[in-house]
Design brief:
Number of domains: 4
Distance between the termini: 39 Å
CATH topology of the largest domain: Immunoglobulin-like
Helix content: 10-25%
Radius of gyration: 35 Å
CATH class of the largest domain: Mainly Beta
Number of helices: 5
Order of helices and strands: EHHEEEEEEEEEEEEHEEEHEEHE
Number of strands: 19
Largest sheet: 7 strands, mixed
Oligomer: single chain
């Protein structure tokens, strides 16, 4: 922490100097005696002043949350010195992270003890946010010296886009031979009825259509459409955006892409992402919850990056894209 004289010290020095000058100019010792208490006050204060031995930082109860959720933050201040410290503190924060209380907080930390303060944090936009370190200003007991510094480290929050309601998903043109929720155009084992056909050797009895059999006089078998998965690739255009004071097209695009990724992955589809802007980022399609977090983490890093360079999305050429980890 860096130390400096507080505004009170020059004022006391000015009063002491005025008394000495007045005493010398007038020849009256009374004015000099009036300056002595100020000089003693300054001398004793500077001798007793000790740099505070403070440590601390800010912690969040969780570091991943949805847009609009509120999370509690705990500020810990530890005084390792032998004197109590009066200080003012404020956590450094990013633009879209609102803290309550938002203003400077005054607190007294007793000697050789720990003090905790509780803040509430509410991210106002999806993305990566951070709070910390703590900017603190401490004074000695007489208020003649101040120390300023930063405590702790920067703590990051990852805020996922809020849930969006989707009316209906687009049916895939082709499906993959993996179990999923889409009715395939091919025929095989499944739930959705497709057609009936005559019995063949090896058919299972449970597939017999008894009504059609009774009507036609020969064994008739049900044919069904299997439930398969599909491959979905989300293309996010981050070249430009239209924006007002509240939000922009990138905000809407990220929220929609996150909602589509959640919906398709819930239906056992493989989902990938292409972020196409000043640079090209490609996340290969995959299944599962892990893939959802990969996609959302990639979306959180999305930003407008305008470029005049011509780029394409052909992943077969080396250097045309950079795979996400």
């Amino acid at each position: 922490m860096s130390g400096s004289l507080s505004p009170r010290t020059p004022g006391a020095l000015a009063l002491a100097g005025a008394g000495l000058i007045a005493g010398l100019a007038s020849g009256r010792p009374e004015f000099v005696l009036l300056a002595v208490p100020f000089l003693m006050f300054i001398g004793v204060g500077l001798v007793m002043a000790r740099e505070p031995r403070l440590t601390g930082g800010i912690e969040f109860e969780r570091t991943r949350l949805l847009e609009g959720e509120e999370v509690a933050a705990t500020v810990r201040l530890i005084n390792g010195g032998t004197q109590a410290v009066e200080l003012e503190l404020v956590p450094v924060r990013t633009r879209y992270l609102a803290l309550d209380p938002a203003d400077t907080v005054a607190v007294r930390v007793p000697a050789r003890s720990e003090t905790q303060l509780t803040f509430s944090a509410r991210p106002q936009r999806w993305g990566a946010h951070a709070a910390g370190p703590l900017v603190v200003r401490a004074r000695d007991s007489l208020g003649l010296t101040t120390w300023e510094g930063r405590l702790g480290r920067r703590v990051h929050l990852r805020v996922f886009p809020g849930e969006q309601r989707l009316g209906e998903l687009v049916a895939p043109l082709r499906t993959q031979p993996f179990l999923g929720a889409h009715v395939a155009r091919a025929r095989g084992d499944g739930i959705e009825f497709a057609d009936i056909r005559p019995f063949r050797v090896g058919d299972r009895v449970r597939h017999v259509n008894w009504r059609a059999t009774a009507r036609r006089g020969s064994l008739q078998m049900n044919q069904r459409h299997p439930e398969h998965s599909s491959d979905v690739v989300l293309l996010l255009d981050t070249f430009e955006e239209a924006r007002d004071q509240a939000s922009g097209t990138l905000d809407s695009a990220v929220r929609t892409a996150a909602a589509l990724a959640r919906a398709h992955l819930a239906r056992r589809d493989r989902v990938g992402l292409v972020d196409f802007g000043g640079t090209l980022h490609w996340l290969e399609p995959a299944f599962g919850t892990t893939q959802l977090y990969r996609i959302i983490d990639a979306l959180l890093a999305s930003d407008i990056a305008f470029s005049y360079a011509w780029r394409n999305v052909d992943t077969s050429h080396a250097g045309s894209c950079r795979p996400e980890p």
